[in-house]
Design goal:
Helix content is 26%, strand content 45%. By secondary structure, it is an alpha+beta fold. A hairpin with a 5-residue loop joins strand 2 and strand 3. Keywords: Signal. Pfam families: DUF1091.
Length: 179
Amino acid sequence: MCVKYKYLIFLFSLIYSILEISSKFEFTNVECKSLDKNFADFEYCYIKSVNRSYKYLSLKANVFKKPITKLKVNGALFKRLNGYRPFMYNVTVDACRFMDNKNSNPVAGYFFDFIKLNSNINHSCPYTHDFIVDKLSIDEVNHRITNVLPFPEGAYMVETHWIAYDIDRVVVKVYGTLS
């Protein structure tokens, strides 16, 4: 009788340990590039590692021609397989319309949810200020990538093109690994 309980306890502990295994996302790099320095340029763009388990991303784009009344954002997800290859999503959104109705595009809504609490880009046009993403924590990104919409393990890049008045102005690339 006692041996059966030991096996049962062992089986439950094994199942529990398997269920506790989860994926972890980590930032590896960020690149911010202004394609039109007369329109906008980056004051800063970096990933800061506070300790082994806490990293965050921050960037600030200074906009020199305000207000912005016509803005589109193209976002594409890439996975590294002998170089970065397109993976699942490549969406262009009219940012002014999207901010009026965030349910209009579920894919854009999913990716916007990553930055909405840490940025000042959470209202509709016109934009009369610089664009800031401040201390986007790896914990917030990890939750969305592993729990909300799970992704397979691998190295990823999210590339966004910020298009004002139908001219590509800024490119932001965020790199990370899911293990």
